[in-house]
Amino acid sequence: MSTTPRPLLTQREAATACGVSRSTIRRRREAGELPGCVQDEERGWLIPVEALLAAGFRLNAPAPPEDASSVSPAVSAAETGAAGAVGEDVAALRAELERERREHAEARHQAELAAAEAGHLRNQLAAKEAHIEDLRTALRVPAPKPADGHRSPACCGWGRHG
């Protein structure tokens, strides 16, 4: 294994290399998710590339070591392969998470629509029940007698006496 340490990146360089914002790098550093960070008086916070990879970040195209002859090609390829596999796993998990979020949002939307429709149907049912009760009340009230003393239209056809 190589004794040459991997580069330390500033927060801005790390954000650019990982395709995220500086605030994301800062929050992850402050949360302790990027171990080995050091503060330099001139450059600010320096983050080890290994810490970025261990935290699940994927580097777009890391620069080759300054002294390429000191790094074994087998070690370099193995490190790159491992980082690529981790990056692919992270990408797959992020895609799955995004799919689950979309499905959850759709399910929540469908539940809201169902609740709104149920409320509407309850309102319609209450209105129908009130109408039925009004009809029942109207049927219980005796009909007024006609002024000419007839009890029903069946007796003589309401006013046609002969």
Based on the model shown, name its key terms.
single chain, 162 residues, mainly alpha, Multidrug-efflux Transporter Regulator, Chain: A, Domain 2, 3-stranded antiparallel sheet, 3 strands, rod-shaped
CATH class of the domain at 1-61: Mainly Alpha
For the residues shown, what is the average pLDDT?
Answer: 77
Helices, by number, come to 5
Low-pLDDT runs of 5+ residues are none
Looking at CATH, which topology of the domain at 1-61 would you report? Multidrug-efflux Transporter Regulator, Chain: A, Domain 2
Number of β-strand runs: 3
Secondary-structure content class: mainly alpha
| SSE run | EHHEEHHH
List the helices and strands and how they pair.
Blueprint lengths: L7 E3 H8 L3 H9 L7 E3 L3 E5 H6 L18 H68 L12 H4 L6
Antiparallel strand pairs: 1-3, 2-3
Helix pairs in contact: 1-2
Question: How would you describe what is shown here?
Answer:
A 3-stranded antiparallel beta sheet has the order 1-3-2. Helix 1 packs across helix 2. It has a domain of 61 residues: Multidrug-efflux Transporter Regulator, Chain: A, Domain 2, CATH 1.10.1660. By secondary structure, the chain is mainly alpha-helical. It is built from 5 helices and 3 strands.
